[in-house]
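## retry 2 of 3
previous attempt timed out at serialization; input unchanged, resubmitting
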Amino acid sequence: MNALVVVALLAAAPSSPVTLEDARKQGRQSTTALQSILDLEVAEEDVRIARSSLLPQVAINAYAGKRWIGRRNSFSLVTDPVTGQPVQIPVETEPTSTEDYDLGATLSQSVYDRKLWKQLEQNGILRDAQKSQTKEEADTAELEAVRRFFTLFRTQASRQVLAANVQRSEEQVDRARSMFEAGRVGKVEEITAKVNLGNDRITLTQSLKQLATDQAQLAVWLTRPGTEVLEAVDPGVLQQEPAPAPSIEEAVKVAREQRPLLKARELQVRSAEIARAIARADYIPTLSLVGIYSRQGPDAEGVFTEPRMQNNFIGRLNLEWNVFNGFRTPAQTRRAEASIRKAQLALEQSAREIEAEVRTSHQSLEAQIVAAQQAAENKEAATQGLHLAEERFRAGAGSTLEVRDAQLKLTQAELSLLQNRIDVEIARFSLMRAMGALSPGETK
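## retry succeeded, writing output
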């Protein structure tokens, strides 16, 4: 009995209840899902970076320097005192130094550059593709949270089944003792019943390990402390008949329309097509405006404090046309075309894999529904079998072994029903995830 007290104390430890909806919502904020959201933020910034090249560019520059010129020989033009004609004679000059100051600003604006516009368009498409990929990751994270939630709930419910089995074994011990004291059965029946009770208590105690494992795995996935004790709140599915699966045709249709991965693959194909347009943009001239204002002089006062002096203005309209670049442009175009084909192949393969995933999930759900119905029938038969075995034992026509066999069959039937019924729900959520209908309202 001391062991049962320990088990009761462990099971009664303070716990945090978690509903199925809590697990689904928090699962979409798991670490893997958050990392994908960060990837989306990076894609958003990539769009802003691409847009910046199309906006005016302003740069301000200033510098102060000094130039030193050493002693040197140079020719100087002088008048010959005899002939009166100008002549050049070598003259040695003294070392000199001059100061140099500059203050300026440059304004440039792209008027037309097809490559820049296409790069902006491509980054927008990649951002949208990342949005779909982020939702795909969030759906995956939610499904894993659902699976771990039901795994924990199954362990909790299994412990209730095992506890009920312990109670039946205790009743059998009392029944065998009473009949032994009444002289209707031998002592071996009571001893056998006690051994069976001890084994059942051991099984119940050992289930605590699985309970702790399932609690920890759910807590970690929901980004909660690994030491937090969670309790899966009964979602009420065990008291309901499982709803039928949708038709396979409807499931495939919804998957083609809503599965985020397919949308991401389609946008990746579009991005590859834009990459080809970017490569071809080298065939087209670019046009830009440039304005330069500068102030230069040999002294700081004139450059930095006297606005009337040292002013220079330059305005340019630049036309640039890369007529020949060593056949780089056609090579880049062909490479982009190969990337388009690769993206198309990835899209086609993903479409096939998703159709196969939908069919597999659909078949699994239908099979689990049938298995759950059969498990319910088995439980009813096992309940009747245990009732008959107990009646035979009370009448002195049966033995503890017969009761034990019927008891184990009932426990196995109850655990099988529990397993299959929960597998129905996991299979249903798996189908919803394959269809892209797990949380259609979510964008992240």
